Amino acid sequence: MNISLLTSFVIGGMLLLSLLYFNNSVLNSTVETTMTVSSQTKIDTIVEILENDISRLGYNTGTADNFITHQSNVLKFKGDIFDGDEVKDLDYDEVEWRLTSTKAGNTTNPNDYILKRTWDPDPLVAGNEEVTEFYVSRLEFKYYTAQGAVTNDRSVIKQIEIELIYEADEPYYTNSNGSPQYYRTIWQRTIVPNNLTF
Questions:
Q1: Which of 56, 71, 107, 155 would bridge 169 by S-S if both were Cys, CB 3.0 to 4.6 A apart?
Q2: Do the bridges between strand 159-167 and strand 184-191 make them parallel or antiparallel, or are there none, so unpaired?
């Protein structure tokens, strides 16, 4: 057997394996980047709506009792969510954000649950609710007094801490043991609605 031919085969094989590994790395990086951009866009949409709703909590209600439900995974409240929609029985709307225990059926991610936003522009008239569904992995509300102490007393809630975790619908990588990896985005913020500070 020719030793130089054997050496050429070994070097060529190593070069081919290096190219295949590099190609696989580039492919995984591209998929991860695509998932990152897609996930960021989706969570930005949820955050924009959520921040708008909570910042309008208590606005134009004419009452100090603006919380209807305040739990760790459900927040329902009164507030004038959109200016100029007052052709109705009340000046304010009711909004509910609820993380359900229902798994999202349209994704492969086992950590996805249905998050429902229910907006009722006219609470005195039945059947006006508009429901929007999102897929998230976690949504948690925490309630604080003006001094920053945790509270469940709705009459002294002045701050609301929100933690939202969004994971991509599809995996960007599968480990050698077969477990899929999903891109994860975490958003956390404490909001002080202006209308609760009075």
A1: 107
A2: antiparallel
SS3 labels along the chain: CCHHHHHHHHHHHHHHHHHHHHHHHHHHHHHHHHHHHHHHHHHHHHHHHHHHHHHCECCCCCCCCCEEEECCCEEEEEECCCCCCCCCCCCCEEEEEEEEEEECCCCCCCCCEEEEEEEECCCCCCCCCEEEEEEECEEEEEEECCCCCECCCHHHCCEEEEEEEEECCCCCEECCCCCEECCEEEEEEEECCHHHCC
Pair of tokens at residue 172: 């960007």
- The pair of structure tokens assigned to 127 is 């059947």
Assigned token pair, 112: 């996805």
CA 17/CA 12 separation, integer angstroms: 9
The amino acid occupying position 111 is: N
Residue 136, judged by CB atoms within 10 A of its CB (0-12, 13-18, 19+), counts as buried
Q: What is the pLDDT of residues 122-175, one digit of tens each?
A: 888 888 899 999 999 999 999 999 999 999 999 999 999 999 999 988 887 777
Are the C-beta atoms of 125 and 88 separated by less than 8 Å?
yes
Report d(CA 109, CA 187) in Å as an integer: 19
- Which pTM value belongs to this model? 0.80
With tokens 């031919």, the residue in question is 5
